[in-house]
Amino acid sequence: MLVVRPRSVIAAVVGLLVLTAWGPAEAQMRAASAEIVRATGRVDVLPKGQASWVPATVGARLVEGDQVRALAGGAADLNLPDGSTILLAENSRFAVTRLDYDATTRDRDASFHVVVGKVRAQVSQAAVQLVRARQSNFNISTPNGVAAVRGTIVVIAYNPASREALTFVFPSPGQSAAAARVTFVTRSGQAVTVTGNNYVRQVGNQPPGAPAPVSSLPAAVQTALQTAQNPSTLGSSELVVIQVTIPSAQEIQTVVDSGGAGAGGGATPTGGGAPTGGCPGCGRDSTESVLSPLPPPPPTTAPPKPVSRACRTEFCEE
Fold first, then answer.
1. For the chain, percent helix, then strand, then coil, each to nearest 5?
2. Which end of the chain is more exposed for a tag (fewer CB within 10 A), N or C?
3. What is the pTM of this model?
4. Please, are residues 185 and 261 in contact by the beta-carbon 8 Å criterion?
5. Domain spanning 27-290, CATH architecture
6. For residue 281, what are the CA distances in angstroms to 95, 106, 185, 189, 210?
7. What does the pLDDT look like over 106-162, one tens digit per residue?
């Protein structure tokens, strides 16, 4: 005769409830897509695994592994499932490396890669509990490093000719400048957190400079940051060649973790000065093989030099 003990029944019921609650939550986190809602001028899409660009159309959806480019005079607007938006500027190429979303919990795992040019992303604010639990990633990488973005506006530009990456941070509507935070992490794990209305410049495999106010830039440059203007990478070979190295989503996240950025809470000393973070050699981009390494900077305790306005991008003037 089978004797059913009350304690066993309770344990079985509890286990069943846990599995029932956990299963659907896991199943709801699935691959999503980015929709092209506007395309002007010459905009093309390179589907994953394909060897030729095709004209982009409004309503087309980009999934993991797809790339999109905008040539001179072109631009595209993308809508993401979490409410975030991305503007692809002219002379720019951009790849979707991961885009998972849970509409019920607002959990997201999104990562993208800027091959060349400029993008402007307005990232929706994830639920606080998800950020604390590091369940809501939104990362944009360049060949130099990764910007971990959490609920703010960021403009990221990369110029292969100068190997220069620029990260500009702006508050979202109704958000304070102090609350707008983006952590940029280099491939060697050096991190700096940039708050609203500031930007950081980083070249090659050198450490990032100290954040500087966007207001220190010429007025024309400040205006251009909010538009699709991007003449600096006109004619770049990265806009034409099919084969370029795109880091995987896991490689991008490894770079973020190597700088201690986690869910966007990377450390910056009081005053926003010197970059922090460690783990040299961790989380290198797979683009390492296509970049000519720069010699490591000499050790110094002096503060970083101010950004030169002779840099070769539209954000600086000769």
1. 20, 30, 50
2. N
3. 0.75
4. yes
5. Sandwich (2.60)
6. 24, 33, 12, 7, 22
7. 888 999 999 999 999 999 986 444 444 444 689 999 999 999 998 899 999 999 999
